[in-house]
Amino acid sequence: MKIWLLAATIALSAGNALGHEAKPHASKGVDYSKAEDTPFGRAADPRKAKRTIRVEMTDQMRFHPGQITVKRGEIVRFVPANKGQVMHEMVLGTMDELKKHAEMMKKHPEMEHDEPHMAHVAPGKQGVMGWQFTKAGQFFYGCLIPGHFDAGMIGKITVTHERNVK
Ligand SMILES: [Cu+2]
């Protein structure tokens, strides 16, 4: 994942150096055609989503809704909205990955990280994140800001076997 992000950055810089205007990229400058498959799906252009799911994040350390059901193959445009007074984030993943990541955030709270499967949202703001769920199963979204995940800031995504028909 890191490698293609770097490659995209270099390609963009080279384009600028040659005097070309950088093409307007989708959110976060992600080239979705190069999106890497993960155990929980792949980054997708939120503009291609047929469904938008607004997820509110509160200082009570909860996501609303706290459960989401999607179909395999479906592209979802998540709009995480921070209704609280402190920073929150929505990070997609397996329970294992979220737990590991939450532990890492405790050790390195200053760590800056930004990948297509996460959105950091300041108080009163909202973000956007496009994701395609390619595998059926049980996945999760969590807020990995130290203390939030442990306080129960976690939601569940069920991806059904039924394939989404375009
Ligand atoms: Cu939070």
3D architecture notes:
The chain is α+β, with helices and mostly antiparallel strands and 166 residues long. 17% of the residues lie in helices and 34% in strands. The protein has 2 helices and 10 strands; from the N terminus they run αββββββαββββ. The protein has helices spanning 2-17, 95-107, and strands at residues 42-43, 51-58, 62-64, 67-72, 75-82, 88-93, 118-121, 129-132, 137-142, 154-163. The strands form 2 sheets. It has a 5-stranded mixed β-sheet, with no helix packed on it. A 5-stranded mixed β-sheet has the order 4-10-9-6-7, covered by helices on one side. Strand 2 (51-58) and strand 3 form a beta hairpin. It is globular, with a radius of gyration of 16 Å. It starts with a helix and ends with a strand. Residues 1-27 have low confidence and may be disordered. Bound molecules: copper (II) ion. The site of copper (II) ion has 6 residues, from loops.
Strand order within the widest sheet?
1-8-5-2-3
- The strand count comes to 10
Report the total helices.
Answer: 2
Distance between the termini: 27 Å
The sequence of SSEs as H and E is: HEEEEEEHEEEE
Morphology call: globular
| Overall pLDDT metric | 84
List the helices and strands and how they pair.
Elements: H1 2-17, E1 42-43, E2 51-58, E3 62-64, E4 67-72, E5 75-82, E6 88-93, H2 95-107, E7 118-121, E8 129-132, E9 137-142, E10 154-163
Parallel strand pairs: 2-5, 4-10
Antiparallel strand pairs: 1-8, 2-3, 5-8, 6-7, 6-9, 9-10
Copper (II) ion binds at residues 57, 88, 143, 145, 148, 153.
